[in-house]
Amino acid sequence: MSGVAVVGGQRQRLRDLGGAGGGGGGGHELRHSDGPWMRAAGGAEALHTQLGPVKAELETAHEGVVAGTAGLEALTELGAVRESWQRRIEAARGECRSLAGNLRDVARAQGETNEAVRQSFAPVAARGGGQ
User: Fold this and answer.
1) How are beta strands 4-7 and 10-13 bridged, if at all?
2) What is the 3-state secondary structure (H, E, C) of 62-117?
3) Fewer CB atoms inside 10 Å of the end CB: C or N, the chain?
4) In this predicted model, what pLDDT tens digit does every residue of 81-126 receive, in sequence order?
């Protein structure tokens, strides 16, 4: 069943998907754009950058609270909460940095795959659409 696809419940050959005569003149081309992947990567990087100063801001805010709550039992719990948030912020930054790289890798791999598929069909196109 090489070259056969099931489309809309009907069996079709690849040449049938190319339009009239199987020559690909039907204007139905699968196109890939890395734009959405790259925008998502940029968004992840922006979030990584925006989270950068948050840890220092949290420490500064905590210093002010410590000065006003000396001797209270809640101070220990407040410190544990602050440390928890610092770990979460750093984890989120790391995830954003990793995600940005992974999204760029997907865009690159998809583009390379599309080019390889296009080149693999070049001999068929040279023979007049595989008829």
Assistant:
1) antiparallel
2) HHHHHHHCCCCCHHHHHHHHHHHHHHHHHHHHHHHHHHHHHHHHHHHHHHHHHHHH
3) N
4) 889 999 999 999 999 999 999 999 999 999 898 888 888 888 887 7
